[in-house]
Amino acid sequence: MFAGCRTRRKGHALHENIEEITVLVQGVQAGFHHIARTTSIDFELERENVSLLRKPEAACAMATIGTVGDIRGGVAISFDAPGFSEAVEKFSHGMLVGAGNDDAMALSCIGEMANMVSGQLATFAHEKGYRLDVTPPNVFAGERVVQVYPDNVKWIYIPYRLKSGHVFLSIQIDEKSVKSAGVRV
Fold it and tell me: Which residues of 108-121 are buried (b: 16+ CB within 10 A; e: fewer)?
């Protein structure tokens, strides 16, 4: 699971923060695996499409989680429309079939999913020796939900395929705060 990310490559834009990025990626993946075990959502990582972006893709729903402590940054979990419907249906154990992103219960499912992921992320980071707190998730929905940040902010974009759609994980680390916190990179 991304064990190779610990290798530092010269010239890589985020090489100084690769250990922190690895903790965030693996912590969120631990959350996805926990959700998959408890809800039968089948997340399949599309490794060939992992990339560095200036901003996350537009989505129909997005849950954001902030991280503070030794690793400051953020995680966005976004869904395309088919991925949203499938995730909500599976997460609700079939009680919300065909719910759209305007359904309050469906959005509550996404918020709880992000809550579970953030809990797993905080636990994973603590086990790796990092002080990390997470903010409560914020959930947004609409036709084209996007996050807006300054141009110098970069996101690691990790797509997961579901049977009928996609879930997109985007991770951002505040490089200045990591350095000022004295975290060994």
Answer: ebbbbbbbbbbebb
Tokens of 90: 């599976």
User: Which amino acid, one-letter code, is at 72?
Assistant: R
Is the separation of the CB atoms in 102 and 46 below 8 Å? no
The C-alpha atoms of residue 61 and residue 145 are separated, in whole angstroms, by: 7
The tokens for 75 are 């995680």
Q: How far apart are CA 171 and CA 77, in angstroms?
A: 9
Query: Is the whole-model pTM more than 0.85?
Result: no
As beta bridge partners, residue 44 has 161
Show the CA angle centred on residue 157, arms to residues 153 and 162, nearest 5°: 150
- The radius of gyration computed from the CA coordinates of the chain, to the nearest angstrom, equals 16
- Residue 54 exposed, middle or buried by CB count within 10 Å (0-12, 13-18, 19+): exposed
Query: 36-75: per-residue pLDDT in tens?
Result: 888 877 777 676 677 776 555 668 899 989 888 888 888 8
Q: What is the Cα–Cα distance from 126 to 104, expressed in whole angstroms?
A: 33
